[in-house]
Hints:
Elements: H1 2-30, H2 34-67, H3 77-105, H4 107-131, H5 134-166, H6 172-200, H7 204-207, H8 209-223, H9 238-257, H10 272-294, H11 308-339, H12 350-357, H13 359-379, H14 382-401, H15 408-435, H16 442-486, H17 491-497, H18 502-510, H19 516-519, H20 522-527, H21 530-536, H22 541-573
Helix pairs in contact: 2-3, 2-5, 2-6, 2-8, 3-4, 3-5, 3-9, 3-16, 4-5, 4-8, 5-6, 5-16, 6-12, 6-13, 6-15, 9-10, 11-12, 11-15, 11-16, 11-18, 11-22, 13-15, 14-15, 14-22, 16-17, 16-22
Amino acid sequence: xxxxxxxxxxxxxxxxxxxxxxxxxxxxxxxxxxxxxxxxxxxxxxxxxxxxxxxxxxxxxxxxxxxxxxxxxxxxxxxxxxxxxxxxxxxxxxxxxxxxxxxxxxxxxxxxxxxxxxxxxxxxxxxxxxxxxxxxxxxxxxxxxxxxxxxxxxxxxxxxxxxxxxxxxxxxxxxxxxxxxxxxxxxxxxxxxxxxxxxxxxxxxxxxxxxxxxxxxxxxxxxxxxxxxxxxxxxxxxxxxxxxxxxxxxxxxxxxxxxxxxxxxxxxxxxxxxxxxxxxxxxxxxxxxxxxxxxxxxxxxxxxxxxxxxxxxxxxxxxxxxxxxxxxxxxxxxxxxxxxxxxxxxxxxxxxxxxxxxxxxxxxxxxxxxxxxxxxxxxxxxxxxxxxxxxxxxxxxxxxxxxxxxxxxxxxxxxxxxxxxxxxxxxxxxxxxxxxxxxxxxxxxxxxxxxxxxxxxxxxxxxxxxxxxxxxxxxxxxxxxxxxxxxxxxxxxxxxxxxxxxxxxxxxxxxxxxxxxxxxxxxxxxxxxxxxxxxxxxxxxxxxxxxxxxxxxxxxxxxxxxxxxxxxxxxxxxxxxxxxxxxx
Length: 584
């Protein structure tokens, strides 16, 4: 036993010396500051891509108003969903393929290409927003967002792998901590920027990435260098890539269209197309798994999931992402549809005010993200990521206990604590994932990690939106009927209007829109006393109607988010002791 321990210690010492030697070679060739150059540029890329993923959620009211499109028309709901989710759908599907290509042809090369594509997409979006309106304008924005998503996929797939190459294992937690602040914190910052910019000029939400993209693209081409050793003679796994892309695309499309009403159903989960898409998608992913196990040059080495730290790190990453995405989406609806209008804020100003009100969530993340990243270099990831998810889950439960018309200080404290939990979790978990894989697999591993991150938003909206609609379905119609009758609306008209689908009610709330003026027969409205007519079509009536039903559904959503957070904490705790590939 003593002999084995000595051999193990000798091996570790030799590996530490080898890593130190590699770092010295990097410093002599590219300078001592190269790792900080890599950190700053990849962090800028991660920030830009993450901001773009969420900036539209809070600014959708201004965008659809500016385009002159009514998103509550049944045929236009798909436009809203594609504008909202298309970016994450495409980037989530392609990042694993890009990660594999990066291992074959160079991470920096593909990262640079991604920066350029993203910037061109940003320029196109801004120009389109200025000159194309109506349905064509919405379609143009959707297509250009998909172009951006391709560039964002290149950035997502390679930024962490480039950092892992540039930093030694004892400094990666700190470096990836800053990068994850940009990646996860950028998602929160995107909500805030979207609210602020859209209150001035909605075109600015598409312009904000242009100067950053131009500077970042030029800087990346001039300053970044390829550190990874590229093995020649590798072949591209066509069958594996095709089966994975088709499978994941079908699943994500089915999840997206499951949110759209189908026939007499409030949602589309009973649609044969949605059901077929889910089944076909799962079958294609099963085929992908069989292909990868037999392939000589697989798209992604499934054997990496045998590494405990990698497998459980990605499980906790996916669950944490689903919980986080659902929370952001629900908070925006809560603030814009109910709390702000009932506090006298006009619908045109709700995005700006909502952005200000969620700042504590960002502050909690920004404060504790770097701290956990730094400490995880010394003490490992398990403690911080596990405690972070426990705090996150407790924050969800606390949020479910405050009323729809809350006192802001309690709301601010709770979302600050949730941000703290997410900050404690993010950097240590990602560092542990990347430290656990061999250097030649870092591109693919980073791509798989990015896939879990990106698809978590679509999964979260599909899961939580469905839970919210189920909760609303029970109480919304009776609440609307009772409220309309109280305003002297005839019984037959009140009964007809109260059949408004919960999905439409939620989209109306998200978009800061009172649908009563378009739902109630104009003749009926004209026959009402002026005070009743003004109240029914004003900013208070509709939020008051949906307040109680929404909060009942929200409680179910928050309990589900808490459960996912606690399962993520368990998965994080099961990752094992600190593990760095080739060192321990």
